[in-house]
Design a protein that fits this description.
Number of domains: 1
Structural class: alpha/beta
Distance between the termini: 18 Å
Order of helices and strands: EHEHEH
Strand content: 15-25%
Shape: globular
């Protein structure tokens, strides 16, 4: 049964082992027929563009959601991502 799976990345970069492992998992799930969506907080840094380009190349939809306006950033990203679904 095909499922829609939402991943929420705290950084939106490929600069650590955890993010690389999650990207590998997302790619595997996509290849097995699931719809995979990844949400990231948009920190307006160049490394995030590389991350988004890599995910696009392997077929993963990425939502780059605003992280401005102080604390509670991850909560806002989660709420925005869920509304998108």
């Amino acid at each position: 049964m095909k499922k829609t799976i939402l991943f929420i990345s705290p950084t939106g970069t490929l600069d650590n082992g955890a993010e690389i492992s999650i990207v590998n998992l997302m790619e595997y799930l996509d290849q097995t027929g699931h719809q995979v969506i990844n949400a990231i907080p948009d920190y307006h840094v160049a490394t995030q563009q590389n991350y988004i380009s890599h995910l696009t190349a392997i077929g993963i939809e990425t939502l780059s959601l605003s992280s401005i306006n102080g604390g509670g950033r991850m909560r806002r990203v989660v709420c925005q991502a869920v509304r998108h679904l």
